Amino acid sequence: MEKHHVNMLEDVEKTTPSGGSIDDSYECEFTLEEQKKIIHRVDRRLVATVGVLYCISLMDRTNLSAASIAGMTKELMLAVPFGGVSRYSVVTLVFFTTYIVFQPPSTIIIRKIGPRIHLSTITTAWGAVMIGMGFVHNWQDLAALRVVLGILEAGFFPSCVYLLSTWYTRYDIGKRYSVFYILGSLASACAGILAYGLMQLNGREGYAGWRWIFIIEGALTMALGIGAYWMLVDFPDKAHQSWKFLTEREAMFIINRVDRDRGDAKPEPFSAKKFFSAGKDIKIWGYALIFFNTTTVSYALAYFLPIILSQNMGFSIGASQCLVAPPYAFAAIVMYTTGWLGDKYKVRGPIIAFNMLLCLIGLPIMGFHKSPAVRYFGVFLTTAGANSNVPATMAYQANNIRGQWKRAFCSATLVGFGGIGGIAGGLVFRTQDAPNYHPGLYACIATSLLTLITTALLTVEFVRKNKKADRGEIELEDSHEAQKGFRYTY
Length: 490
Description:
- By secondary structure, the protein is an all-alpha fold.
- The protein has 19 helices and 2 strands.
- It is 72% helix and 1% strand.
């Protein structure tokens, strides 16, 4: 069979994952068809596994709204005011206090102990916490368990974002992030239907229906967490050790491919200086601000959409649970399409702008039209725009960051600001604003507009610096430590 030569690595030292030297045969021994099969094998083992785990993560994080209208609010008296907000809002928000604080260490820990141990352990542990939430008898205990849940889930999302970014080139990652998050969106779509089914267990073994939502979903999480130990794979430099997932030569092909694209596949020894000095880069905070704006809207929908459908649009409890599904299914289609287009045409900013325009069209329709059916159409546009912008923003930052520890810091910062967006999303739709929730809608519109402004400013900066690099005046993203020729994607 004819071999197609692929020049994978020119300026980076060639070493195997075990540290030995290699020759050029690593670069040309695989045909194009064989290369595609290797990458698809990575997709099946990595993207599919972390995507399924993210399904469970998102479902476990946001099933409060389903349990709320299934009787939890009444039984635990969550509608009672506490410190100017309802107890329900307190229970929602305390999760994010620990979720934000414990995220930066997670990208360091996953490098030290490996993804299989780290991710499977925390997933199994938070499944146990979910089961415990099904047995609480007061809102204080529920809030305490949500704090613990925040500690455990803090290590998941930034670790997955970082892990995925180490395996793929800059213009492969958009589709993969989209698939990863699509699975989460499908979980959100199915969560309401699943919750409605579990509600039917009301009275079984003496437990209310809302308790069964936590108990059954927690048990499912524990089962998947245990299974994930055998399904997850390590970083590319250790992939050949993960249950014969890849041979050492196949792993070296992946490493060379990433190095040729951006020159940072080789793992670096941990340095606190390198890790925290990344915070001096203003772009990182720009990505974080975009992610904050996006998650404010997406979390607001996740926590309050069933409530809005019930109170604002007049649907029954059962219908409100089930009508959550179609908008998220539509979001999955938009998400993958925009991810594919972004990779194909090597653009990121226009994708983010398009998603935000969907929100800016959908939010006013959702909030102000007289017809419930038309307002429900607005939910489709808003849900699609907000959720599609999550993987789009992850791809945006992944394309424009270089260096292992800078990438780790950026992933943690990005998701940390996403957690702050979760706090904002949990506050924007206040009980006293029911049933129209206009202040919350204004807040979501403002964050969408701010995303457009921030993206425009970053684009101007990227164009300016790329032109300076083309003229030979500067090298971008520490090119002295990697290969030259890096350019920002806008």
